[in-house]
Amino acid sequence: MKKLMTLAAVIAAIAMHAALTPATLFSDHCVLQRGKKVPVWGKADPGAAVTVEFAGQKKQAKADGAGCWRVDLDPLEVSCDPREMRIAADGAAHEEVVLKDVLVGVVWLCGGQSNMTFAMWPEPRIGTHAGREMNGYYDIMLTDAPLVRGVNMPQCWSAEEKDHAKLKWFAFTPANARDAMVFSGAAWHFAVRLNQALKIPVGVIESAWGGSCIETWIPSDGYLASENFKGLATRKIATEATPEQVAQAKKAGRKPSLHQQARACWNAMIYPLAPYGIEGAIWYQGCSNRGRWKEYYEMLTALRTGWSKRFEVADMPFFLCQITPYGYGFKTEEADPGEVQIREEMERFGRSNGNNVGCAILSDIGELDCIHPGDKRTVGTRLAALALNRIYGKKNLKCDAPVFDKAVLSADGKRVTLSFHNVDGWCMKGTYEPRFELAGTNGVYAAVKSVIKSNVKSIDLVVPDGMEPKKVAYMRRSCVHGFLKNEAGLPLGPFRGQVGSASK
After folding, report:
1. How many beta carbons lie within 10 A of that of residue 490, not counting itself?
2. Would you say 408 and 501 are in contact if contact means Cβ atoms under 8 Å apart?
3. What is the CATH number of the domain that holds 437?
4. Residue 225 and residue 229: Cα distance in Å, rounded?
5. Which segments within 274-323 are labelled E, that is strand?
6. Calculated CA dihedral for residues 78, 83, 89, 95, nearest 10 degrees
7. Residue in 138, 189, 202, 195 with CA at minimum distance from that of residue 379
8. Which of 110, 214, 349, 421 could form a disulfide with 403 if both were Cys (CB 3.0 to 4.6 A apart)?
């Protein structure tokens, strides 16, 4: 009987044993963030003493009753040398996990919807650009950047915050072409540009889902800090679709989009990553929120606030992409539910939140017949320019697109002079005619002729005979390109404004 009891105790102990498991981002080839504390955490036997050794540091923590543990490494210096991280636990059985080829540099989180997931060069298929970056194949095969690493979170959602999945980091070298081909084009080019400029390791974490709305990515902390969306912090997430949702989805030829609920993608795709040490985030999303453009600025604020808190990065660097021109199938600009307006909100967010926030204007790379422009090289480069100038001290690198300041009607009423910030001179593409419009007292806009000189910062608009201009707009239609650029090749984005009178 005693032997049977002992055997039962052993079986029970084995059943209760929790294998030492570091958090999902801790694997071979990972990049750790320089210059700030580096949280390392995971699961082990409840009460087990866990020791983490790296770069001459040795930190210890005790797993709590649920088996959760965390240590914080002191700020690390940049290191291009591959080193090992050792994690050991003294619990029901002594265990050790060894991570190999660990570098120290800068790490960025890359989120959003399909234009962030848009891959470098996946297997060919019929379609515009076949869903891939225009130069992706050669960029992958001709780039040997072992200090640049990427990792991709699979698309999934959850009604509750949960840890799951062991992720795999890979280096940006031709040997890893298969991994690179399905990796985010925007994130790939962003990381390579940072590495070229800084000469240090760069890690990028892709966690995005095509067609997703911004609400699904915001944690409860972000909603609680907002003015109008506090209720979304605790709203229950449904795990089954209603009959009405099933019918609507079937009619549209798809499955119910339960992952679009507030916090659903956060719970499964971002929560497992936090609080991994990161520098900041880049964001490419907005098409799915066009119809709710009036909410978008506050949603962006909630997103950044929530991520900043969960990743423990005060005033988190956050650089977003303005969505590009696209027709959306609407015959008139009046029928468009908000594509131009949400672009204006993105630009406003980028310039209204201090040095650590910026917006990459992409008016010139849109494809009017494709919502996914293939030129992700330009996207990544402009995002990198913002980070290099704002965060990494490359102040000689221009990163800010032109911004409309004011419009003034001349005393004789024949011209409207537009003033801008971030312009030393103008350049245009070929015979391109910028679409500027003026509206009179009746509120009806009309396209007008512009007078643009390369060495003059302002722009003059010719007022049509009989019009008393009250409003001005540029690229007011969603399917209009914007090839008017400043001296650094950064395009002017869409704007609307009031026309003032000349000072007497």
Report:
1. 21
2. yes
3. 2.60.40
4. 9
5. 280-284, 318-321
6. 160
7. 189
8. 421
**DSSP 3-state of 112:** strand
* Residues 124, 257: Cα–Cα separation, whole Å: 27
What's the DSSP call for residue 502?
A: P
H or E element at residue 148: strand 145-152
Tokens (6 digits) for 332: 């008139």
Kind of pairing between the strands at 170-172 and 145-152: antiparallel
Question: DSSP class of residue 268?
Answer: I
Q: What residues have CB less than 8 Å from 16, skipping those under 6 apart?
A: 45, 92
Whether 99 and 110 share a structural domain: no
The answer to whether residues 89 and 184 belong to one domain is: no
Rounded Cα–Cα distance for residues 392 and 193 (Å)? 13
| CA 50 to centroid of chain Cα atoms | 34
CB-based burial of residue 437 (10 Å sphere; 0-12 exposed, 13-18 middle, 19+ buried)? buried
* Predicted TM-score (pTM) of this structure: 0.94
Q: What is the CA angle 342-347-350, rounded to 5?
A: 125
Among residues 56, 80, 103, which one ends one of the domains?
103
Specify whether the CB–CB gap between 312 and 273 falls below 8 A.
no
Tens of pLDDT, residue by residue, the chain (504 residues): 444 444 444 444 444 556 899 999 999 999 999 999 999 999 999 999 999 999 999 999 999 999 999 999 999 999 999 999 999 999 656 899 999 999 999 999 999 999 999 999 998 877 777 788 999 999 999 999 999 999 999 999 999 999 877 899 999 999 999 999 999 999 999 999 999 999 999 999 999 999 999 999 999 999 999 999 999 999 999 999 998 989 888 888 888 999 999 999 999 999 999 999 999 999 999 999 999 999 999 999 999 999 999 999 999 999 999 999 987 766 566 666 688 999 999 999 999 999 999 999 999 998 888 899 999 999 999 999 999 999 999 999 999 999 999 999 999 999 999 999 999 999 988 888 999 999 999 999 999 999 999 889 999 999 999 999 999 999 998 888 899 999 999 999 999 999 998 764
Tell me if residue 499 falls in helix, strand or coil.
strand
- C-beta of residue 437 within 8 angstroms of C-beta of residue 407: no
> Which token pair is 393?
């001290």
Q: What is the dihedral of CA 299, 300, 305, 308, to 10 degrees?
A: 140
Same-domain check for residues 423 and 330: no
Pair (328, 433) in one structural domain: no
The domain in which residue 78 lies consists of 19-103
Amino acid letter for position 225 = A
- Answer whether 368's CB lies under 8 Å from 325's CB: yes
Among 186, 192, 205, 181, residue whose Cα is nearest residue 125: 181
Q: Which neighbouring-strand residues pair with 497? A: 472
